[in-house]
Design a protein that fits this description.
The structure holds two protein chains of two kinds. Chain A is an all-alpha fold. Chain A is about 75% helix and about 0% strand. Chain A has five helices and no strands. In chain A, helix 2 packs across helix 3. Chain B has a domain of about 300 residues. Chain B contains 22 helices and no strands. The chains are: A mainly alpha, B mainly alpha. At the A-B interface, helix 1, helix 2 and helix 4 of A face helix 8, helix 9, helix 10, helix 11 and helix 16 of B.
Chain lengths: ~120, ~450
């Protein structure tokens, strides 16, 4: 067991230095790339969008801090709840029914479609 | 009995009759010079021709040419199909790959280098033409296009710090790379094996087709081994086994208290942010790692098609018909490329061992990094470390594992949306790592 570990350790020492370079540079670049994307979206894009939001609020005469609050408070769950409530209000107005069943008589005694007289006349 | 009769009839039609016709025509042309001997009586030559024909037919059958290796591979193919149908482990991949293994391991007559133009490695066969897409790395970018067109980056945009979990899990790629070097693989082969740790099938195929394709020459004049089949099969097998591999590691590395952490619901993301993400993501990542361009370029292009809102037809095609067609091609040809003589080798066993290690390391690194991030995050913004495993880019299986493990700890704590963030970050991260390996070793 010890020999095996020793062999492994020796092999590790004998590895081409370029392999360690690839590992170090590789891990570093993967982290750096995704960190850059994170920083961009966390700070730069947020700054740009907030700037746009504030200028829009200023144009409309809304307090910019209020607009900021609205933006940061906005969550997908809240939006989903609001959307559901609006949908229910407009489309599901019959949640509570009276419970009284009425039958409306729709049959008619006379219809020109079944009138023998009418058909005979046309002949 | 009926089948035997049919086979004998076919053998007669295919081999014996043409042989008789040929010998008859030869006899006609030589009637003037050849004097029939008693042993060349028509009845005898017919029997002899029949036996020769049957023997020739037998020589060409799979039964005659089968080796134990072929049978082992056929059993492996059947196991893949069984797992896909019975347990629904990645059926969209395992059914084509399993069937491909069956197709690729039908034994055939190849004595003297005979090319029947049937097998995947035989020039001019249909399968060989389809395999071109694997060898030249055509299919993986097309799959990435489809993935981009079906991926919603909202959870990542709303909480971009989750990108770092996707980066942490890629450490598995580089540790596996070192492990492969220690086991005696050369550098390009080790790079191709290491990418299994990214848990991304198309990326693994893309890199192995460039680095370990059996064509490239090393500095010492030797040719690299063709490891596309073993690497692809290992990557897809472990991706299918994510629900088995990851949960024990997740439970081992997290405490009960950590598993109960509730994360803030992701905020709603504006359309502008969704459009800007693929554009800036493409520019930022590909400027740093241009080697990842074929994969990341197509991934973000697909996402732009989706999010722009004006190319719905293209996005729909990319995420349905196109990706389905390419998945069929890639699954079948990768499966068929695992011919027993190429696949059942010591290298394949080592690759499978390294692949298992790569998955375990990637999962471990993701979870440990999430715990590490929690040390610096304020109360209320902490990350549930159970989403750390999703840093490996097995989309969406590893995110589903996070959700399942989260629900085991707390039935009301849904982690799926949060886990999708590191999951798609893992796709980007593994493509960047692939680009780096290509730029050094390609």
């Amino acid at each position: 067991m010890m020999n095996q570990q020793l062999l492994t350790a020796l092999a590790a020492v004998q590895l081409d230095p370029i392999s360690w370079t690839i590992v170090a540079v590789g891990i570093g670049i993967v982290f750096m790339s995704l960190l850059l994307v994170y920083l961009f979206f966390r700070y730069i894009l947020t700054f740009i969008l907030n700037f746009k939001l504030r200028s829009f609020a200023r144009r409309k005469g809304i307090d910019p801090s209020e607009a900021d609050t609205a933006r940061t408070m906005m969550s997908g769950e809240v939006n989903a709840a609001i959307a559901m409530a609006i949908y229910s209000y407009f489309n599901e107005l019959h949640d509570v029914e009276s419970g009284v069943i009425t039958i409306k008589r729709v049959s008619k005694n006379y219809s020109p479609w079944s009138s023998k007289l009418y058909n005979m006349k046309n002949l | 009995m009926l089948a035997l009769l049919v086979i004998v009839s076919l053998a007669w039609l295919a081999f014996v009759k043409p042989e008789q016709d040929r010998s008859r025509s030869l006899a006609d042309s030589k009637t003037e010079v050849i004097v029939a001997t008693p042993q060349d009586q028509p009845g005898d030559s017919g029997d002899q021709g029949f036996m020769d024909g049957l023997k020739r037919f037998w020589d060409f059958t799979g039964f005659r040419n089968a080796t134990p290796g072929h049978l082992i591979m056929i059993i492996i193919g059947l196991v893949f199909i069984f797992l896909a149908i019975r347990y629904e482990y990645e059926p969209l991949l395992l059914v084509p790959i399993g069937t491909g293994i069956l197709i690729g391991n039908i034994p055939m007559f190849t004595d003297g280098g005979m090319n029947l133009q049937v097998g995947i490695y035989q020039q001019g066969s249909v399968l060989n033409y389809l395999y071109f897409g694997v060898l030249k790395g055509v299919y993986p970018p097309l799959i990435f296009l489809g993935i981009g067109a079906m991926t919603d980056f909202s959870s990542l945009i709303s909480n971009p710090r989750l990108l770092l979990l996707g980066a942490a899990a890629q450490v598995g790629i580089f540790i596996t790379f070192i492990g492969a070097l220690l086991l005696g693989f050369n550098m390009p082969e080790a790079g191709a094996i290491g990418i299994i740790g990214g848990a991304d099938g198309p990326t693994a195929i893309f890199i192995s087709s460039r680095l370990a394709n059996g064509i490239n020459l090393l500095a010492d004049g030797t040719t690299v081994k063709n490891l596309i089949g073993p690497i692809a099969i290992a990557a897809y097998s472990y991706m299918a086994l994510v629900p088995v591999i990851q949960p024990p590691i997740m439970r081992l590395l997290t405490s009960k208290k950590e598993r109960l952490i509730r994360m803030k619901p992701p905020r709603a993301v504006t359309k502008t942010e969704k459009i800007l993400f693929p554009i800036f993501g493409l520019l930022l990542t590909c400027f740093i790692s241009p080697g990842a361009l074929p994969l990341l370029g197509m991934l973000f292009f697909g996402n732009i098609l989706k999010e722009s809102g004006v190319t719905k037809r293209l996005a729909e095609t990319a995420r349905t018909s196109l990706i389905d067609i390419v998945t069929i091609m890639i699954g079948l040809t990768v499966g068929a490329s695992t011919q027993a003589d190429l696949f059942l080798t010591r290298e394949s066993i080592l690759i499978f061992g390294l692949g298992a290690g790569a998955f375990a390391i990637a999962t471990t690194m993701g979870i440990l990094f999430a715990k590490c991030m929690n040390l610096f995050l304020p109360e209320g913004s902490k990350i549930n470390p159970l989403i750390g495993n999703s840093g490996v880019s097995a989309v969406p299986d590893s995110a589903r594992v996070s959700e399942a493990e989260g629900l085991k700890a707390d039935k009301t704590n849904h982690l799926l949306m949060h886990a999708m963030g590191p999951n798609v970050a893992g796709v980007i991260g593994s493509a960047i790592a692939a680009g780096i390996l290509l730029s050094y070793l390609g």
